[in-house]
Amino acid sequence: MPVEMELDPFVLAKSLSGVHLIDGEFVAPVNGKTFDVLNPATGKSIGQAAEGDKDDVDHAVMVAKAAQKSWAERPARERGKLVAECGRVLNQHVDELGKLIALESGKALRTESRVEASVLADMFVFYGGLASELKGETVPFNPNMMTMTTREPVGVVGAIIPWNVPLLLMAIKVAPALVAGNSVVVKSAEDTPFTVLRVCQIMQQILPKGVLNILSGFGPGCGGPLVEHKDVKKVSFTGSVETGRTVYRAAAEKLIPVTLELGGKSPMIVMDDADLEKAVAGAIGGMRFTRQGQSCTASSRILVHEKLHDEFVSRLKDRVNALKMGNPLDESTDIGTIINAKQRAKVCKYIELGSEEGATKHELSALPDDPELADGQYVRPVIFTDVKPDSRIAREEIFGPVACVFKFKTFEEALELANDSDFGLAATVWTTNLKTALVATKRLEAGFVQVNQNLVVQPNLSYGGIKLSGLGREASLESMLEHFTHKKTIILNME
Ligand code: NAI
Ligand code: MG
């Protein structure tokens, strides 16, 4: 289907209403049901998403299974070229996609949504180029036997994605899965169905029918049947710990592999020799204040040496205060909204709890005064100081614009505090001392550790966590080989 550019996100959301994308075509859900998708900045409906259930899952998986066979038979580099070409074409739609994400997710266009849309293509281009790395090995097993391994696709992959960074988190599943010769059925998050659908519609111009299919719907009603489907041979999930466990249990019944990326409570250690200004900027970026803190790698535990603590907090407050909350589609807006009313209520509860637990609350920036936005899911950013390490705000993932700042005296104390967490996704340390940096990178218990910077997911860098933050790695060559192929051993007897 040819795809015309549509820069009005309201028109685009309407045009994508009421359908899944199966076998290269938009199709209505079998049960005919839809649900409203709300603009979190106003509370008004922007369209209706198809409410998928088991029947739609059965249809999509059947199609994906049939398409996978001939897709896997194509030369690997041909698949790679097509996936890379998807990236090139998606790059022409950055403005359009950025506006649509801003509309459905509430993430500010300039600081977040357009940025996400513009890094999307890179992931497809990166994985497209890796197609010829799907190599096997020869093994010196026996001189009379030619022994080798090959990498085989797993079959149909089920991808379940969240709403906070829907395009990028979809790309790090879909791109490697396709390049490795699998077909994919994606279940989008209920709050952000349209941008994901749009991306896949654009990709249909390039990919053969049926190798990439998109369903929208609710977790238990649509995601559940996808994980449980007998022909889904691998599940890649990003979301909450609780749902991750449900997915893992269902996958265990079928004995299929899963990748789980499940959030965190990531520490940021600021040593007394740190460049203070850089560290403050790093806290703003790391905490994702412009995304309302809705990030699995958010630096939500900020540990500051007692010598710098007060000055750090004062500068951090000034910086956050300078961020403008407003309409996500407005170019001057720095901070948009929380995703939905339920998440807003959860975040607000934690903010109340923080005060009850004895922390000192600093509520910053200002709510937008536009009456149009009066019903929007806005929450003012909060920095808590004097936080007790065993309090709930210090230990639980809030997934909102709430940062906890702790004061420490010694490096050892900082490391212990940083590692005293059920999570282990990301960690950063800010120091100008090489030895401190090296020791910290060795001792911090996390899948992704950075010194004096706070980058997000990057092509070619393995991304994922330990402890409750999940299983497996994404975004790298190894993740494609380990998670989207299986190794076959082949022996040819020459005697
Ligand atoms: P969730 O984990 O329930 O939803 C994520 C995805 O899983 C969505 O597509 C959802 O429809 C699907 N899902 C839900 N139940 C399912 C089931 N039984 N079977 C299969 N799929 C299912 O997360 P939710 O409710 O949106 O947010 C709750 C919390 O999760 C947040 O406050 C945050 O702490 C965490 N979260 C973490 C994310 C991350 O990037 N690691 C992303 C989104 C949320
Ligand atoms: Mg949930």
UniProtKB/TrEMBL annotation:
Keyword Oxidoreductase: yes
First and last residue of the signal peptide: none
SUPFAM superfamilies (alphabetical): ALDH-like (SSF53720)
GO molecular function: oxidoreductase activity, acting on the aldehyde or oxo group of donors, NAD or NADP as acceptor
InterPro entries according to UniProt: Ald_DH/histidinol_DH, Ald_DH_C, Ald_DH_CS_CYS, Ald_DH_CS_GLU, Ald_DH_N, Aldehyde_DH_dom
UniProt cross-references to PROSITE patterns, sorted A to Z: ALDEHYDE_DEHYDR_CYS, ALDEHYDE_DEHYDR_GLU
Pfam families in the record: Aldedh
UniProt keyword Oxidoreductase, yes or no: yes
Swiss-Prot/TrEMBL keywords: Oxidoreductase
Sequence ranges assigned to domain Aldehyde dehydrogenase in this UniProt record: 31-490
Active site: 261
Family according to the record: Belongs to the aldehyde dehydrogenase family.
The protein's name: Aldehyde dehydrogenase
Species annotation: Thalassospira profundimaris
